[in-house]
Design brief:
Structural class: alpha+beta
Shape: globular
Distance between the termini: 42 Å
Largest sheet: 7 strands, mixed
Strand order of the largest sheet: 2-11-7-3-6-5-4
Number of helices: 5
Helix content: 10-25%
Length: 218
């Protein structure tokens, strides 16, 4: 068929973290405090990015993968609220078109994963497939499983599981992260400030590439 194109706009939303430390703490510390602050800033920015890429509403932040209208498409809704069946996960897998299944994986919260790991087949055997190679993700029905603390927990009427090819989630980084030391601004208080900044956006450019398992309303 003829190809159809649409336009997606990636903005530049600013994200920054800041901290103040006393001059005495900075000069008298027994280890490299500045390096530690930079490392912690990196973790803070990374956590904020991960949360926004999954749950962002698109207002002043990225549009998340679980956004109700601009994120992944709902492929399956559970039969009962507060739980999930193995058959529903299988239906979710095959609700995703074949080309996307080649690079697909699951994305789920740890609390929901605990429920899924207890699923058994008709012979009472767990369906979970732990990874045999160090560093490799575990698998469910042959597909890798990734966890995130920011993925939605199992609640009535909420998305609980994503399955798809996340290469279609585009991230726009506007330059690199910057780290700045502010000595003069807080000098009168005997403090030194540090701030880290970045500009970033993200959006799922092809919603059909990711399918969502949604929990039934209570």
């Amino acid at each position: 068929d003829d190809a159809a194109f649409d336009q997606k706009v990636l903005d530049a939303h600013k994200l920054h973290v800041a901290i103040k430390v006393t001059e005495e703490l900075l000069y008298d510390n027994a280890f490299n405090l500045e390096r530690y602050i930079v490392q912690q800033f990196g973790k803070a920015l990374g956590n904020a990015e991960e949360d926004a890429f999954l749950n962002g509403d698109g207002t002043g932040k990225p549009t998340g993968l679980f956004h109700p209208t601009k994120g992944g498409q709902v492929g399956v809704t559970t039969e009962k609220s507060g739980t999930v069946k193995a058959d529903e996960i299988i239906d979710l897998v095959y609700s995703l078109k074949r080309p996307y299944r080649k690079g697909a994986s699951f994305l789920v919260n740890d609390s929901t994963l605990a429920v899924i790991r207890k699923l058994k087949d008709g012979n009472g055997v767990y369906m979970w497939q732990p990874a045999l190679t160090a560093g490799e993700p575990d698998r469910l029905f042959g597909y890798p499983v990734h966890t995130s603390q920011f993925a939605p927990e199992m609640e009535a009427g909420k998305p609980i599981l994503a399955f798809g090819d996340y290469r279609y989630y585009n991230i726009g980084d506007r330059g690199t992260r910057s780290f700045q030391e502010l000595r003069e601004l807080f000098a009168g208080n005997g403090m030194i400030g540090y701030v880290a900044k970045e500009r970033v956006d993200g959006v799922l450019v092809l919603p059909e590439a990711v399918k969502i398992l949604k929990n039934k309303e209570a």
